[in-house]
User: Which sequence fits this backbone?
């Protein structure tokens, strides 16, 4: 392996480590600021996952998604679900992060040769869609009786209404919009990274 190859691998490793730290910090920030927004939970860490998937690769997106999942579990953000079904919660939380990161990376890798801008926007869009979609599937598989109870206590007609309107609706729209607005950041970071590699 030549020196330039080693240098590139080292830079990728350092970038992945930095993004992993950012994912953990953003999850902690989400927990600390939760009292300011008690009505809903917003995932702030999806954009670093998309950035990692685009700059480092598809598997990096998967790793960052897993890091996000572990941070959610350790931070206590999934405590209400852990109390109901620990194994189901761990499976859903880790799987949704992993698949969201892998999906973002796969979309970017597929589309980047044609248009990095389109690739970044669609990768940023697919990440929250997969994250939320796996959560919905996991909720139906493991938690619907509990969600139905929570919905009844909150005055909703049924579990589905509570799941989609109270638990998912606003957070998903905010996450989706946040990712789309910041997707040009991914394009710019990729361009900067490629320019540096070219100069070397």
Assistant:
């Amino acid at each position: 392996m030549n020196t330039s190859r080693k240098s590139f691998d080292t830079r990728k490793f350092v970038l992945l480590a930095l993004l992993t730290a950012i994912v953990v910090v953003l999850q902690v920030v989400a927990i600390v600021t939760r009292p300011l927004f008690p009505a809903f939970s917003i995932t702030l860490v999806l954009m670093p996952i998309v950035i990692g998937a685009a700059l480092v690769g598809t598997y990096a997106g998967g790793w960052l998604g897993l890091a996000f999942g572990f941070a959610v579990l350790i931070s206590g953000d999934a405590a209400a679900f852990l109390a109901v079904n620990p194994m189901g919660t761990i499976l859903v939380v880790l799987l949704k992060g992993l698949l969201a990161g892998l999906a973002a990376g796969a979309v970017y890798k597929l589309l980047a040769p044609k248009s990095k801008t389109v690739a970044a926007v669609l990768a940023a869009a697919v990440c929250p869609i997969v994250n939320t979609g796996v959560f919905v599937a996991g909720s139906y598989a493991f938690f619907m009786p509990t969600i139905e109870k929570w919905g009844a206590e909150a005055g909703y007609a049924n579990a589905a209404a509570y799941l989609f309107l109270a638990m998912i609706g606003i957070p998903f729209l905010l996450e989706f919009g946040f990712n789309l607005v910041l997707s040009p950041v991914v394009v710019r970071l990729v361009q900067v990274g490629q320019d540096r590699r070219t100069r070397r």
About this structure: The domain at 3-199 is CATH 1.10.1760.20 (Arp2/3 complex 21 kDa subunit ARPC3). The chain has one domain: 3-199.
